[in-house]
């Protein structure tokens, strides 16, 4: 206990830049010719869909991606999943890993 410094905890921060991307696509759509419009309209719809995802959905996706990359196929909130998640993100505290895994199990992307 004495002399040991607490390791900094890795926090998962959800960054959203869909609004910037959407503005760029809308600008391109405004300047597009008829042959480009269908593709840009589809891109705009996909961006809107991605922007509508909640923070919980994005955190769940992050967890599921880490688990899949490590080859974990079981439940996201299992003890093994928590271990895999902490190995994938070494600075992640046990408490954060447990909470993220529980949230990921509840919010399957």
Outline the structure in words.
The structure is a single chain. With 109 residues, the chain is mostly helical. Helix content is 61%, strand content 0%. The chain is elongated.
How is the secondary structure organized here?
Layout: H1 18-31, H2 37-51, H3 55-69, H4 79-88, H5 94-106
Helix pairs in contact: 1-2, 3-5, 4-5
Low-confidence stretches: none
Query: Quick check: average pLDDT?
Result: 86
The structure class reads: mainly alpha
> What percentage of residues falls in helices of 4 or more residues?
55-70%
The description of the largest β-sheet is: none
Computed CA radius of gyration, to the nearest angstrom: 19 Å
Report the span from N to C terminus: 40 Å
User: How many individual β-strands?
Assistant: 0
The shape, in one word, is elongated
Order of helices and strands: HHHHH
Note the beta-strand portion: under 5%
Which characteristics define this entry?
109 residues, 5 helices, mainly alpha, single chain, elongated
Concise summary:
Helix content is 61%, strand content 0%. It has 109 residues and is an all-alpha fold. The termini are far apart.
């Amino acid at each position: 206990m004495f002399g040991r410094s607490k390791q900094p905890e890795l926090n998962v921060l959800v960054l959203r830049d869909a609004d910037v991307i959407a503005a760029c696509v809308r600008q391109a759509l405004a300047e597009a010719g008829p042959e480009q419009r269908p593709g840009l309209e589809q891109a705009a719809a996909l961006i809107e869909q991605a922007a509508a995802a909640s923070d919980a959905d994005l955190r769940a996706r992050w967890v599921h991606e880490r688990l899949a990359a490590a080859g974990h196929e079981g439940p996201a909130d299992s003890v093994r999943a928590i271990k895999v998640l902490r190995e994938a993100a070494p600075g992640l505290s046990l408490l954060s890993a447990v909470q993220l895994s529980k949230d990921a199990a509840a919010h399957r992307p």
